[in-house]
Prior knowledge:
591 residues; 22 helices; 5-stranded mixed sheet
Amino acid sequence: MNSKLLRRLSALSAATVFLLSACTPFQKASDTGDSSLTWGIRNGYIDFLTLAEETFRDIEMDYSAYAGANITAYEWAQMRGDDIPDIFVTSRILDEDLAKERLADLSGYDFADTISPAILEQSAMDGGVYLLPVSNTVHGIYYNKTLMGENNWDVPTNFAELESLCARIREKGMTPGLVGTELNDDPFSAVFNVAKTGWLSTQEGAEWEQQFLSGNASAAGMWEGTMDYIQRFMDIGMFSTDPGDRGNKELIEEEMGNRRIMFFTSMLDVSTTELPNGDQLGLMPYISEDGSKNIYISNPAGYIGLSKRLTEPGNEKKLENALRILTLLYSPEGQASFITNRTPCALSTLDSTDLPEDSLLHDALQAQSQGRFCPMTYTHWEHVLYDMGKLYKQWFRGEEGLDGPGCIAGMDEIRTSYLAHAETKNYCESTADFTLVETAVLAGKALSSAAGTDAAMIPYAPFYKKGDLLGAGISGKLYKGMIDAEIITSISPGFDGEYAILTMTGAQAKELEETGFNLSGQGDPYPYILVTKDGKEPEDDQTCQVAFLMRSYTKDVGKKYNARTEQGSFQKFLREWLTEQQTVSPDRNEK
């Protein structure tokens, strides 16, 4: 489609009609005659949706209502179940092969021409582009820009310059730099990001990473040079630590704001560019030894793609509308909706982006256009990240006699221990896809069984109510396949840790089911489903003990029916109940 035509169509429109209708399995428009688009909504997109509302009046959109405990796991469960929305949004790319199978290749469309070539290159999967970053959060090393200027010090561009500057900083009675240690993520990232100024960001590094995580390669023989380089950062005072493990925000405000440190290394997104004393923050890259590969770390705010079914015959109008949406998203106006004064570390993905020279991300923007951006290491490292980060923190602090070689050995030990004890525990098998209502029934059976009640009352979210997502109920469906801990979290409510038992008659329970759940008192209530042990409605005059999920009833209802709060994790209840079932299906989960 011609890009000028797309822009003209956008300019002629004024507002979107949002259809907050029941979510059904995502079907082909050619099967239903429906040209509306489905979208998996996420936090952080509200400003863009408002912009779309002001731009398009002819595109009807139905939004996912998911507000469960693990949105990323649910998005990829939908992907495996071939049930993704037309516009697919996710925070992480968990399976490139599956993405290529389910999503359309976006590389040939006009809006792709507006995106930085370096970003397109990093997003490529076997020559195609299936998921594009919406915007990039930038990570580097923070420094006190005002103090640097007062001393006429230049931002270092190689290690020799950094070493010389740190010596001058120490002469001023300051500590050159701190590494955040409140969470082990920061020491882990500090080590891995320095490694990316060398071999780890190459194809050799990518292949090693994959082989290491599968147990087919070692850190020994690969990491020695990197650990020697990190020791040099430690020797010049760049990687000191806070004995109190204070939070990153507190360290920036107190240590940098009071001019006790110059640099701060953290995977922190700052929400301001100014310190409490009025000093300005700066951001510089991770420094390579000779300065030829100084890199920033990028962490996309999210990824977006289009279902491949939109490219099938009969879906031409849906595809056209989806491309108009993406054309708006990858315009300066669209990118600006993701980058506000609340997100000063966010960077547009557009090739045309320009920033003032004195802005926090000016240098990072140049690095982005030059391809000196490396993705944050997290995906697939989740199970070993905590222990490796703890190991590096001990090294930075001189504890346990650790040094670089000891950390290399520790990396191999942690990985080997995890693989030896890692059981991809499958608690149960789902022999068929469940609908949302059927998933809510399953949840009700698990809750009622654990609570020892006559019934359970479960709210579920078949539609999206703007500004009022259902974190207290069921908003994700169970799909066919093995059920592990991640799948359990994906269909669980966003709130956990308590449940309640309310006492009411059968008539009152049925009346409440008809009324639904409306915590805010605004808009349409979310429906309840009453789940009983035998699947039969209770007699009107029967007194029932009814279990409710955490926060899934109003104060008035709780007071009226003498709510008794109990401690207990629904996810644990569901895991134990599913283990007992061994297999579940929509028409057989009665044990």
